[in-house]
Design brief:
2 helices, mainly alpha, single chain
Length: about 60
């Protein structure tokens, strides 16, 4: 189980992309499925939604 909460890492966009990349590698090596926070299969649309949430968080909290 990999997860990221905000506030959290100093560079949330980078942390998210690293986590997503590592999750993809784990799936490739071990098999399985990526799931979202509702335990549904993770879609490209959901990933973009998460990216937008991070951008919105950074904007509200003065991070770049």
């Amino acid at each position: 189980c990999l997860f990221m909460s905000l506030p959290g890492p100093k560079k949330p966009k980078e942390a998210f992309e690293l986590m997503l990349g590592m999750a993809g590698k784990l799936i490739s090596e071990l098999g399985g499925e990526l799931k979202d926070d509702h335990r549904s299969v993770l879609t490209a649309q959901t990933v973009e939604h998460y990216r937008q949430r991070i951008i919105d968080f950074e904007r509200r909290h003065g991070k770049k």
